Amino acid sequence: MIRKREPRWQSAAHRAQVAAELMEEAESLNTTGIATPAEVTRSKLPPPLQVAFTAGTAEVPAGDSEPVDHSTAVPAPQAPAPAPVLPQVASREAVARGDRDGALAILDAALTAAPDDALLLLERAAVLSAGGRYGASKQDLERVLQTDPAHVEAHMSLGVLLSRRGLWIDAVMHLRRAVELEPGYAGAWYQLGESLNHLDHLGEARAAFERAVEIEPRNTRALYGLGIILDRLKRPEDATHMYRRSREAAGR
Questions:
Q1: Domain range annotation of the chain
Q2: pLDDT digits (tens, 9 = 90+) for 194-228
């Protein structure tokens, strides 16, 4: 407690003592933790920074470092890179333009990098076959089967190719293998029925066509083939019924 100043204290020594006590008491009452100007001077501390915050960015006074961005940076959306064109697709586009040689060049280049790629070999075999190059097409299909003897599509394609060359017995061997590997393959059953019909195996041909129709009731070619077999079996009424079903399935 500060003593009441009385006239007898008015000497210089008394006034200095009172002043010291006042300062001591004032400092003892400073409980806010905020440095007084005297403390700042004594500690040689820098003056407080005046910081203004905007949307996520702290702005500092001129002369200090650059503003610090406290926001999370969101990268600008990037356009997706265009998907590469598959050689098979480019080849089919070339064939559609009537450029079969260009299609073969595309597939040849792709097979140089991946000589055992089954999809590329099947695609090239199809282009070669369409151009009447059956020997080269057969080589590509056999190459697929060397790598994968159970490749259904290779057996199917080779069976069709051999049928076009009139090699019905060899065609039947590959087509039988195709339906063994994939019993639900209606197209293979139809091709098998065609080959068996040319070998005059009428009972087996009929069964193959019927299996194709069972899988795909509106398979027009299988229905027509079944009509042919029934005609050959001297069953004209049943044959006519199958021909009618084939026309109806085709929308005619």
A1: 86-149, 168-252
A2: 999 999 999 999 999 999 999 999 999 999 999 99
User: For residue 86, what is the DSSP state?
Assistant: P
Bridge partners of residue 59, in order along the sequence: 52
The pTM of this model reads 0.67
The whole-angstrom separation of Cα 121 and Cα 104 is 11
**Alpha-carbon span 186 to 219, nearest angstrom:** 8
DSSP calls for 111-175:
HHH-TT-HHHHHHHHHHHHHTT-HHHHHHHHHHHHHH-TT-HHHHHHHHHHHHHTT-HHHHHHHH
The reply to whether CATH 1.25.40.10 applies to domain 168-252 is: yes
Total count of residues recorded for the chain? 252
Top-level CATH class of 86-149? mainly alpha
